[in-house]
Write a structure and sequence with these properties.
The chain has 16 helices and five strands. The protein is of the alpha/beta class. It has three domains: 66 residues, no CATH class; 62 residues, no CATH class; 175 residues, Nucleotidyltransferase, domain 5 (2-Layer Sandwich), CATH 3.30.420. It is elongated and about 90 Å long.
Length: 334
């Protein structure tokens, strides 16, 4: 799908004004800015300043052009053109509805005759008019300003293709080699805060490490991973496999902190790290979603780790994960 048109910035309009004053062609201005020629033509036609009283002041002035364009966009906003619709949207926001819920309900109630996208509602909330009415305070997740839709960093840049799980070596996939881990976060009820439990499992021995995080920020989580795994020999912490959650965007810390590689599942494919998903189900027996994580002590978490690692597993021929893990460490001479 083609990318939506991006409005000209003030810097682009400054360049247009300078080049237009030098009588440079519209085609050359478009080439310089990486824009379509029609965009430059339309910009000069729409935002050319006409002054009947002072003809000498006529021309294309970048600050004036930017102000004219902003005023035109405000004028065409659907909520500004329809006061009744605007009042209905504000009423629903005050009742705690999200912009997406408001948009969907309007479409359902009007039989698709009236359409109002949730993006339009967000833009109005963060516009000058919306800020004057302090509408942002009614949103489920309030921000100081609305980020442009296409300004969000693509996940493909955060999780590069060379780290995709399809490129993970077969010796890791087949569990032939010791020292490869999977990691995930266990999330609990929102009303109890953002604290969570990280689950880290060694793929071959099924040895489990659990630790608590007070929030879902990526860098502190990676620092905790490094803290728990660094005491092990390098051969016992060769790689970790994650999903593509934002809490794992600081994965490069693992390379610099302890020399471990990182692999990432495909989008919406948590089954590709099935070992840690299976472990999460076991942990949920003791830490259901309604658990208040901040009430759990470090001693409780260590006791739960011991319980998991001292339980015989059929896949290990009824040995325990702790026994298999210790066997591999002894084989490394530690």
């Amino acid at each position: 799908m083609a990318r939506s048109f991006m409005q000209l910035s003030l810097d682009e309009r400054r360049i247009i004004a300078q080049m237009n004053e030098k009588k440079i062609s519209q085609a050359e201005i478009a080439r310089r800015l990486g824009r379509d020629r029609s965009t430059i033509c339309r910009e000069l036609r729409r935002n050319f300043w006409h002054d009947r009283e002072v003809p000498i002041a006529e021309g294309y002035w970048h600050v004036t052009a930017h102000r004219l364009a902003a005023a035109r966009r405000r004028q065409y906003r659907k909520l500004l053109r329809d006061p009744l619709l605007c009042a209905a949207v504000i009423e629903r926001l005050q009742e705690g509805w999200s912009p997406e819920q408001i948009s969907g309900r309007i479409r359902l109630s009007s039989g698709a005759q009236t359409r109002l996208s949730h993006e339009t509602i967000y833009r109005y909330v963060y516009s000058k008019e919306g800020q004057d009415q302090q509408l942002a305070r009614y949103l489920p997740e309030r921000r100081r300003r609305r980020r442009p839709r296409y300004a969000r960093k693509p996940r493909s840049l955060v999780f590069p293709m060379e780290c995709a799980i399809r490129n993970r070596p077969e010796r890791v996939n087949s569990r032939q080699e010791f020292g490869h881990w999977e990691a995930d976060l266990m999330i609990f009820r929102k009303e109890h805060g953002s604290a969570n439990i990280a689950t880290v499992v060694e793929r071959k021995s099924r040895y489990t490490v659990l630790f608590r995080n007070n929030d879902r920020r990526s860098k502190p989580i990676m620092n905790q991973l490094i803290h728990h795994l660094t005491p092990l020999p390098a051969a016992a912490r060769q790689s970790l496999t994650f999903d593509r959650g934002l809490e794992f965007t600081s994965w490069r810390e693992l390379e610099t902190g302890m020399g471990a590689a990182a692999w990432f599942c495909d989008p919406q494919a948590p089954w590709q790290k099935g070992t840690v998903e299976n472990t999460n189900k076991r942990v949920r027996r003791y830490l259901p979603p309604e658990t208040v994580v901040l009430d759990i002590t470090d001693q409780d978490i260590r006791a739960l780790c011991d319980r998991l690692n001292d339980t015989p597993r059929k896949c290990l021929e009824y040995r325990t994960p702790k026994e298999v893990f210790r066997q591999h460490l002894l084989a490394m001479g530690t």
